[in-house]
């Protein structure tokens, strides 16, 4: 083989992945996997989302009213918490793909999340773990004692136990559910697309129940009761996970994800002076992009070295080379529906999920089959097109929020007795929900289908990681806007605890402009990306479920402690 040819013997990265049952044996098609097994994970998805959404969507109320943090700091605490949840999904995906496997990762970190909910319940119930009661919205609000010391430590410990558990769960729920569908099924791509839409539907059901029933309980019965319901719901989710234990197709851990990446880079650098080989010689039917052809040199075999034993660090195979302020806005509006019933502001976020419970099935059974006739794509439209449509739509949510806040503030500042109804902020939530239906599912489908074998959980976690940067930048943006908009004789747009004195409407206009810029930025990068439709069927090459035992795996049964190399 000369220097232009690619080493293909023993192509480890394209080897078949053998999915195992709970005893470490090859699974059986009649007993393992399919939508029956995925249903247990969809139950966990709905129940875990129900638990954390009830906390996260009303958290700003607890932080502001009970912990007595200023409004801008409270908003940052919430966005930092949610951002941390999404960022830690990378840890969950890495541990799952590399060492633990999906089931053990979900089980371990599910109990971590449950412990966080229980600790929040204890703090909300015991007055000695919270600052003295004080009305932050009154004239004396500036003198309320902020939570510090041990009380703040308990709060942050509980909050980030929840973040750690939820973050490590999220990517594994999605990827483990998708792993239940076998590649040898000719309708695999269609079933996978249906599964992703169904997973988002279960997400919407969890959010809806959290934002109606659980938030209402928090408002009427206290945060301690609300947090305890989140804990009970999380426990039910873990029961759903365990009930499917005997039905799952389990993907064995593949070792460190970073070793093949590092070997590609090292090998490419060592061979940087070699002439790049032709694509036909490199890729025998495997996925390949013409971008970054420099890395193709990593799989070259140097002349005169054919008879030498190659280190994996100098010879690589070709396939290896490849809304926080809206709740406070609602609090400043008329929440009365009847004389006996008021809508909790946090429950307004249930409006998009109520609509999505109808829209997601219509999208799956109506739009997808219709679009499939024209695009010949199993999912109706490509995942990149779906993401772009969602990013474009979200701009209108910010525009709606800005217009409503301007009207609400004018009435409040003008001394009018009329108070804008809380239903005026429903459109912004509805548009945002529709945007999420396109963006969230599109991102998950894109990362899962385009990922390399053995990296599905980690790359699915990239979806959540992208959200985390948004939440962290949100916190930075709030602080930056306050600094830039403040002056010697005026306060910043978001620097006061009173929205009537703040300029939340201008902040929403800024978000609308940033959303539009983000969409334009996405268009550039998505056009630059070389989309591989064949990746839908080549991301995982797995063997059909058969009855033979694979003795090499029997010593590492699913429930045995994993060996993690130091």
Descriptive account of the structure:
GO terms for molecular function: transmembrane transporter activity. The protein has 566 residues and is an all-alpha fold. The chain is 59% helix and 1% strand. The chain is built from 17 helices and 2 strands. It has helices at 34-56, 59-65, 71-87, 89-100, 102-125, 149-178, 188-221, 223-243, 258-270, 279-282, 324-331, 350-375, 383-413, 426-449, 456-485, 504-528, 535-538, and strands at residues 336-338, 341-342. The chain has a two-stranded antiparallel ribbon. Helix 1 (34-56) runs parallel beside helix 7, helix 2 crosses helix 3 and helix 4 (89-100) crosses helix 6 (149-178). It is globular, with a radius of gyration of 26 Å. The chain starts with 33 loop residues before the first helix and ends in a 28-residue tail after the last helix.
Major sheet attributes: 2 strands, antiparallel
Q: Estimate what percentage of residues fall within beta strands.
A: under 5%
User: Structural class, judged by helices and strands?
Assistant: mainly alpha
Ends distance: 37 Å
What is the tally of beta strands? 2
Secondary structure: helix percent: 55-70%
Mean pLDDT: 76
H/I helix tally: 17
Global morphology: globular
Q: Main sheet: which strands, in order across? A: 1-2
Overall radius of gyration? 26 Å
Oligomer: single chain
Question: What is the succession of H and E elements?
Answer: HHHHHHHHHHHEEHHHHHH
Low-confidence stretches: 1-15, 279-287, 305-322, 534-566
